[in-house]
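Following the same procedure, backbone shapes were mapped to integers, as reproduced here:
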Amino acid sequence: MAAASSNFSTWIVLGLVFALIVAPQAEARAFFVFGDSLVDVGNNNYLATIARADAPPYGIDYPTHRPTGRFSNGLNIPDIISEQIGQPESPLPYLSPELTGERLLNGANFASAGIGILNDTGIQFLNIIRLFRQLHCFEEYQHRVSALIGVQNTKQLVNKALVLITVGGNDFVNNYYLVPFSARSRQYPLPEYVKYLISEYKKQLKRLYELGARQVLVTGTGPLGCVPAELAMRGTDGECSAELQRAAALYNPQLVQMLQELNREIGETIFIGANTQQMHMDFVSDPQAYGFVTSKIACCGQGPYNGLGLCTALSNLCPNRDLYAFWDPFHPSEKANRIIVQQIMRGSTKYMNPMNLSTVLALDQSMT
């Protein structure tokens, strides 16, 4: 066991070296994205749902200065990761009519705002692409690409691709804690609910592996109780909601344990955990250290902390989005997303388990 640990440590060190030398020249790979509004790039624009970001001031800092369906003032996490890994463009929404031909080979974004691990999460948003359906779309995508480049080449494209999956927060915010005495909170005490979520998520991640994913970045939840919406609705005197923070504190460590179990069962490191709770807490706890004037008040919104309701053309809007950690009541600003991606790419094991994304990609490149 000690020898195995030593060998693993050696690979980590070598990977860090390769990350500096090899990664910048690495050939762009396909990129697939699954999850919720934190990573949706516009699928919900094509759906009959109220979970949408297709009206100003969303997109005010996007290159086109127009709303795109991203719940951001500008770029979101998949966009910034795409830049980092040398993608010619961020993968298009799977429902976009522009996702055809050669652009299919770049990957696809299946994410849909409002979804969770559970099928009953986000039912108030009506027609959204739930996680099981996103995986079905991924299977459908592979059939479409096979018609272009053949079955074997498609399998290789998927095996070599990077996959990002961001889900879980809505299972608390838009399910368990959506209303007092929700159906799920009556069914499970919080610790048991977390265990149930983790067990259901494990099934979905296994399915993702069965569909060919071999490099999967799995993000945890942020500090759920510290977003402006929860400060406005549940916080006291500007303090984070203790109950939602408790939920995140229970969920995130168990997610990492589950990913480690999956990797052991498979026999190789497929799933990489990103401690996005800690990444967020860094700038929530000390916003000035990251160039923000506040991590409590959303740039766009209304009511206390600009945390109530939706971000609309009638909302309060800050003049400089780079000074705010949160763009709207729930979602980070583009600048905050860049800080998060920086830790995903190069962060220590405090943030990434068992290694950061630069190391994963560099090790992969060195073995091809």
